[in-house]
């Protein structure tokens, strides 16, 4: 494969570290996330280095630092948030807790003469998330941006090619973020040679070579990742691939049928369907803790998959739709500094110790890159652009204990939410229904009811890392509400979730 120009992103544990890497790739340059103590010899081969944000505080001794020599490599450096504070600290400036913390949208004023902020208008809305700030510039640096509570919101030393920002250019809420990334890439002179076009051919050849005449098995979840991974491997080894789909009973309405249609009929892949609803419900009985639910579902999924794949005979390979962020998050060196918000489960998370060799054709890719592949592989748009659906399924959209009855309620409500939103083509990237365990009094058909509420949640987001609640038209909300209360017996109230992420998350559990 052709050697690519590379940007390394040193990860100090920001929730946005992956976003930085993705933004660089979107601009056509390969970027990888590495730990702050990454080998300096390898760093020296990069076209550019980015220091991410992070939750730490430089006044604490244990705060993450880097090899001082990184600043003398002569490679362009972009320091973001903690990355800026660290640069200031290690280059002889001063960092202190600010009088006021800045979180969310913040206006900054851009000063003239900055290289990395070139072409941006004077007043910029940016995304901030910090308590500490640089209070004294290191020698050779000038201030490039200021905000009300942060007089040094940007600094740079153009001679040493070091550029720093207290705000986050990688987050879409920073209006000029894309331009800033472009400016930085121009400074690095990295070639724009990262694309999905050759990826398929290269990978199919590679898979054919490694798997050879062996047999492989793949767990299909119905999501785009496992579908694209299975399609790539199917192209390489054909009938030697068998797919298994475990119907957990926690899926949305019509989902299993759609999967059969797409894979068995459309792609002609050998697909086995395992109906395991009863087993999942029995294991989830009386469980209310969200993390416990997630773990139980993940583990049972693995056990069932293991049992079914054994029935297939001699299979050597396990195909997984593991994405780049999954490989990084589970690695020891990178991502360990980020707080665990939820333990994610998906069909791509099967452990190696099942006794297979692993084939992970997407392990270098981000989700948007996988969608591009899906399109190139001619998978149906309904699958390639399917809104995200969590591995633990509807179980994490039922607050409290999961029962068959509650699953029916939330499934019906979810279908109404999806149908109505898709019918008008409302601007939202993920939309769902959540069933609450509380009950409230209502009146339906002149009689008193005592039923559960459904929460409707719809968000606008480009990356699911941050999200805004979607301002759906009132007429649409009214239609959803009246349909749910009329058609889903047991629901007498509908509320709309108007929380962004942060502080909320997309799912309720
Ligand atoms: P949160 O709730 O963390 O969700 O804001 C962000 C995105 O991730 C999805 N999600 C999951 N996806 N396995 C998955 O494959 C999981 O366990 C899981 N939990 C949340 C969620 O639907 C949203 O798109």
TrEMBL record:
GO CC, alphabetical: cytosol
Catalytic residues identified in the record: 81 (nucleophile), 168, 170
Keywords: ATP-binding, Glutamine amidotransferase, GMP biosynthesis, Ligase, Nucleotide-binding, Purine biosynthesis
Annotated Pfam families: GATase, GMP_synt_C, NAD_synthase
Described function: Catalyzes the synthesis of GMP from XMP.
UniProt keyword Ligase, yes or no: yes
Residues annotated to bind ATP: 221-227
Reactions it catalyzes: XMP + L-glutamine + ATP + H2O = GMP + L-glutamate + AMP + diphosphate + 2 H(+)
InterPro entries: Class_I_gatase-like, GATASE, GMP_synth_C, GMP_synth_GATase, GMP_synthase, GMPS_ATP_PPase_dom, NAD/GMP_synthase, Rossmann-like_a/b/a_fold
EC number, as in UniProt: 6.3.5.2
GMPS ATP-PPase domain: residues covered: 194-386
Pathway named in the protein's UniProt entry: Purine metabolism; GMP biosynthesis; GMP from XMP (L-Gln route): step 1/1
Domain of life of the native organism: Bacteria
Keyword Oxidoreductase: no
SUPFAM superfamilies: Adenine nucleotide alpha hydrolases-like (SSF52402), Class I glutamine amidotransferase-like (SSF52317), GMP synthetase C-terminal dimerisation domain (SSF54810)
Protein name: GMP synthase [glutamine-hydrolyzing]
GO molecular function: ATP binding; GMP synthase activity
Quaternary state and interactors: Homodimer.
